[in-house]
Amino acid sequence: MHIAALYCLMKVIDFITEKKLQSRVEIASVRQNADPAILSLVFGLPLRKSRAVRRLGSYVARSGVPIEIRLQFSQEEELLIETFLHELAHCLDHLSNQAGQPYRKAHGPGWRNWAVALGIEPSRCGESRVLRDLVESRLKVVAVCIDCGYELRRLRKLPRRRRYIHPQCGGRLKPV
Ligand SMILES: [Zn+2]
Ligand SMILES: [Zn+2]
After folding, report:
1. How far is 83 from 75, CA to CA, in rounded Å?
2. pLDDT, tens digit, for every residue of 142-175?
3. CATH dotted code for 3-128
4. Closest listed ligand to the CA of 165
């Protein structure tokens, strides 16, 4: 068994059941005239907890094949469901409109139709206050300007072996 499989404990259907979204998804699928086989495929996909703090969720496909849906669980409940349905719409758009091909036109008409059928805003991205706070609380001082003392804050350290200049004053940023 591949080691990653150990972490794939949750499937898309588990989330749908837990959040009581089954009829919503089935009605959308009927409305969209989708092949029922698509739904069973989607239900069996892994739903992975994402640790990316800047993204609410993502749909992952490789070489035209759906791999998984990733969801950042540290967001507000209402937004969590909205994000899940947003990514689910990508997966359904891929399988029903672009089967077997690399997924393209992520927020095109095909995706928008699925989004509307699922009852969510057909807009590009939501924003989570909780996630934004989480990002801010994790920002660390990674460099200090030796001229003006400005502190550069980031989530991750700066790569070493490069020189960084503080654009506002022209001073050198010294990694800490
Ligand atoms: Zn999207
Ligand atoms: Zn400076």
Report:
1. 9
2. 999 999 999 888 888 888 888 899 988 999 999 9
3. 3.30.2010
4. 2
DSSP state letter for 6: G
Residue 152 tokens, joined = 């550069």
| CA 74 / ligand 2 centre spacing (Å) | 35
* Alpha-helix residue ranges (DSSP H) falling in 36-165: 36-43, 77-97, 109-117, 129-138
Q: Which residue ranges make up each domain of the chain? A: 3-128, 139-175
Tell me how far the alpha carbon of residue 68 lies from the centroid of ligand 1, in angstroms. 14
6-47 residue pLDDT tens: 455 799 999 999 999 999 999 999 999 999 999 999 999 999
Three-state DSSP at 85 gives helix
CB-facing half-sphere around the CA of 3: CA atoms within 13 A:
0
Q: Report the 10 Å Cβ neighbour count for 8.
A: 13
